[in-house]
Specification:
Elements: H1 2-10, H2 21-24, E1 29-31, E2 37-39, H3 43-53, E3 57-61, H4 68-81, E4 86-90, H5 92-96, H6 98-104, E5 110-112, H7 116-129, E6 139-142, E7 149-151, H8 174-180, E8 193-196, E9 199-200, H9 211-214, E10 220-221, H10 224-238, E11 242-245, H11 254-266, E12 272-279, H12 286-294, E13 297-305, H13 309-316, H14 325-335, E14 338-345, H15 352-365, E15 369-374, H16 382-390, H17 416-437, H18 439-450, H19 453-467
Parallel strand pairs: 3-4, 4-5, 8-11, 11-12, 12-13, 13-14, 14-15
Antiparallel strand pairs: 1-2, 5-6, 6-7, 9-10
Helix pairs in contact: 1-7, 3-4, 10-11, 11-12, 12-14, 17-18
Length: 475
């Protein structure tokens, strides 16, 4: 989505193409040096595609710290086949670690910090006029004359998100996405789905999250009319039957959310939709939930993070009061909207007893789906700053080893391996419990995914490797 948005803002000024190497090489995988699997087109094929387009600039998305070694390889590949093309990387990891990334990847020329559209537009102006790179807001680069790494602070953000064109989905392999059929969280009600983002940023200041800093320390939203027009375009041009809203906080700003929902009803779009990235639970009420159902909502993901109020208040700093959860869950259940849930354990200062509250919460609330993740010290987060200051980072810590299935934190109260075994076992136990309790519901949710035996086998093997000692190699 980020690449498609960037392509949309520059396509009237230059020739642009998008290569989704993940989708086009979805069934090709190789192990990496960090214990992950890399999947997607081989570097040789990516190099051939770059050479064929012969670009002046190659932009690469780096969504996660664990993918940066691959990004560095891609920059090297690009320079080998198009040595004069400028390599630019964007995303959270390089935005918060620009000096480190430029030092580690000599073939990486520049980094766009945070919101990328204005950076790319200004960079194009500089490339076309020969102006000084120091004038580009939010750009990290090597000085062409001295080789010194310079970082221009990010000071400007887009005030009116409606001013952005819709993502250039015509440059994406939309049909291939439907064929692969692996949406966010592995499920969808309908096969022809697409992702949509209606806002940027978050007013909360959760200690494990860098999103609020990345998007400029504030919440900005598109107008309901702008979003509704995009939804109509998806239905008309791409035959989309379902959308997954990927906002951090779709329901913030109740008046806007209500207008969006009513517009979906009034325009009779016929779309099913869900919120796999989470939704602000505290912003919901009976009226909104009823309108959500009429507008096509079939499931929302509730990001509780913890089942212990002290952990939420004193450690995570999430503005959620657990006492308000049961009535909202009741309204969602009465409306026939399924609920999935996110939980995180392993925060410094969190006791094993408090973690037990988290593991028990989905059972007490009668939740059908729950995901237990492990807190990780991501760049740009308060959690990382706390761990670095107190010496809680695991020995040999490297940002590229960050994964919500791994623990990179050691405290006097518990070990990293202890947290990994606990989180993986509780996740497996809860889902086995629900498989017995709600076999029909699980089949209904994952039926499209379960028809792909290869993917099922890979994920099952991964879970067993992490959970059971002696099953494969734990890394």
């Amino acid at each position: 989505m980020g690449a498609a948005s960037l392509a949309a803002v520059v396509r009237d000024r230059c020739d642009v193409a998008i290569l989704d190497a993940v989708a086009e090489g979805f069934h090709i995988e190789r192990p990496s040096s960090h214990g992950f699997f890399v999947y997607g087109l081989p570097l040789e094929e990516i190099g051939r595609r770059i050479a064929a387009f012969n670009p002046d600039l190659v932009g690469i998305t780096c969504l996660y710290s664990s993918t940066f070694p691959v990004v560095a390889e891609l920059c090297k590949t690009s320079k080998a086949v198009a040595p004069l093309a400028v390599t630019v990387v964007g995303g959270t990891h390089p935005s918060f670690l620009p000096e480190r990334c430029l030092e580690e990847a000599p073939e990486l020329d520049m980094i766009a910090l945070g919101e990328g559209e204005p950076v790319l537009l200004e960079l194009l102006d500089v490339m076309q006029t020969g102006a000084d790179l120091s004038t580009v807001d939010g750009l990290a680069f090597r000085d062409p004359s001295t080789g010194e790494i310079r970082v221009n602070p990010k000071t400007r953000f887009i005030e009116d998100l409606d001013s952005l064109p819709y993502p250039a989905r015509d440059l994406l392999p939309m049909e291939l996405y439907q064929q692969i059929g692996v949406p966010h969280l592995l499920f969808s009600e309908r096969k022809r789905f697409a992702t949509v983002i209606t806002s940027r940023g978050c007013p909360a200041r959760c200690n494990f999250c860098s999103s609020w800093r990345f998007w400029g320390n504030r919440f900005r939203a598109r107008s309901p009319e702008n979003v509704l027009d995009e939804l109509e375009l998806l239905v008309r041009e791409f035959g989309v039957e379902e959308v997954q809203f990927e906002d951090d906080n779709l329901s913030l700003g109740r008046a806007r959310f209500r207008k969006l929902l009513q517009g979906m009803v009034d325009r009779d779009l016929g779309l099913a939709w869900s919120t796999p990235n989470g939704i602000a639970l505290w912003a919901l009420d009976r009226e909104l939930i009823g309108l959500m159902k009429r507008a096509g909502c079939y499931e929302v993901t509730l990001a509780f993070e913890s089942g212990n109020q002290q952990v939420l208040d004193r450690i995570i700093h999430k503005p959620l009061k657990l006492e308000k959860v049961p009535p909202i869950l009741h309204e969602l259940k009465m409306a026939g909207i399924r609920t999935s849930s996110f939980f995180i354990v392993g925060f410094p200062g969190e006791s094993l007893e408090q973690m037990k509250d988290t593991f028990m919460m989905p059972r007490k609330l009668g939740l059908t789906y729950a995901w237990f993740f492990i807190a990780n010290p991501l760049p740009g987060t308060e959690l990382y700053e706390t761990c670095a200051k107190k010496g809680y980072l695991k020995k040999g810590f490297d940002f590229v080893n960050n994964s919500f299935s791994r623990c990179n934190i050691e405290t006097p109260q518990w070990t990293s391996r202890q947290i990994e075994k606990l989180a993986h076992w509780e996740f497996l136990k809860f889902n086995l419990y629900n498989l017995v309790r709600h076999p029909g519901a699980l089949w209904q949710r994952y039926r499209n995914f379960l028809r792909n035996p290869r993917l099922v086998a890979e994920i099952a093997k991964s879970l067993l490797r992490r959970t059971l000692p002696g099953f494969g190699i734990h890394q």
